[in-house]
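Narrative progress, year one. The postdoctoral researcher (J.K.) led the effort to move from monomer predictions toward full complexes, under supervision of the PI. The following entry was the first complex the group processed end to end, covering 490 residues in total.
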Amino acid sequence: MITNDQDDTGIVFRKTTGHYTVHANGRDIDCVLSSLIHKQLIYPTADPTSLRHRVQEVRKIDHVDPIAIGDRVRFIPIAEARQNRGLITEVLPRLSKLSRPAPVPGQRVFEQVIVSNVDLVLPVFAVAEPTPKWGLLDRYLVSAESSKLSVLIVITKLDMAWKNKDFDSDLEAYRRTGYPIQLVSANTCEGIEELKRTLQGKTSVLVGKSGVGKTSLLNAIQPGLGLRVKEVSKGEQGKGRHTTTHLEMFRLDFGGTIVDTPGMREFGLWEVSGEELAYLFPEMANHVGKCKFGLSCHHDTEPGCAIRKAVMAGEISPHRYKSYMNLRREL
Amino acid sequence: MRNHVSSFGDFRCTHCHNLVSAAHTLSGVNNRNHCPYCLWSSHLDLFVAGDRLSACKGQMKPIGLTMKKSRNKYRLEARGELMLIHECTECAALSINRIAADDDSESILMVFHDSCEHNDQIFQLCEQHGIVTLGADAIRTIQAQLYGPLIEALIPMWE
């Protein structure tokens, strides 16, 4: 029996296949989706005063999952013998979201909203094991810039710094760009207190490839969580194996919430066009429009390109420029 | 030299406009650096061969030949490997590049003869970058590298 006399709102904290844990009024409620959310109902707009409110068209939604962690949802409590169950009827407008094209086979590309309503994105990279892929970091940064989200680059496994001699010079490009960077070690707890101060009162999300130590970092930030962690596997060229297999949001004792995500080896850009890409690299944004061909410049082989000139002058890192060109070819 | 079609695939030379295959089986090198027909290159690498980090992307003209010593004394080319010297027409950067298996030998010899004509200018330029250019006296060595060691025995017979 559904009691629809009073709709409640809450925040989605956890999701597994078909089930969503919504936190509302101090309780965790196990919810399922209303069938209406699976479809997009189109109503006629020709006569808004019409009393007959008929559905004109039903379209399939363009998302892999209409609900993301961090979503504020409206749900109807279901009164049954087992309490704390509900039916999600509406997703409230999102203030922000971090999306990627869903890695599903087929020609049609769907949006996968990884997390919504967050304040801070924490791209996590290890000093070594696995070796940092700076191109992936650039993808996270562009995606966060596109969603107008703040970023804090977190570098873990600081105690392994001796294994990567090029690390400091590689990171210098991001320091110069102005992105805040926090170096931490979950083993020695170095940098953990500073990180806690940054996370306080915010909703943050940890993103990074498998094995970089996202969950270990979370355990170091809040030891009571006791989340499952593993050693990085050696068999697959140190690519790491997926220990965390679902998305979950955690409440932090010192204030704020944080979302742990499974490792992502692929991170495509969603709703970013080739024309706006240069604006999403902060160090390049000032040079856009100053090229010989103005806004039509692709910043590739065109003569009189201001961005290429800035790279040659040392104002822009050649690695960042290469990332820009790689992303530009995809779009 | 590469057009902007693909970073590591086949490309059309923007100097002679020939279509160039990047297949390793044809060139024998991992990073196709220059057009095998006109030998012109593009300024794409910055620190090491194949890093594709340069933003200059200017055309690179073959200006001469040099010999890179091999560390392996048992290799066939123990006395050195023939390399092309390229100069960027935009930023004047110099680079030396391995000759690929399918490079046109006649074009390489033309580059060599041109460099001999302007030897002083090129020699001084290369010397500033620590590169030793091959002079007219190296013709036998170059022919041996391009056509095989037997050519050294055959040339006196022709002469």
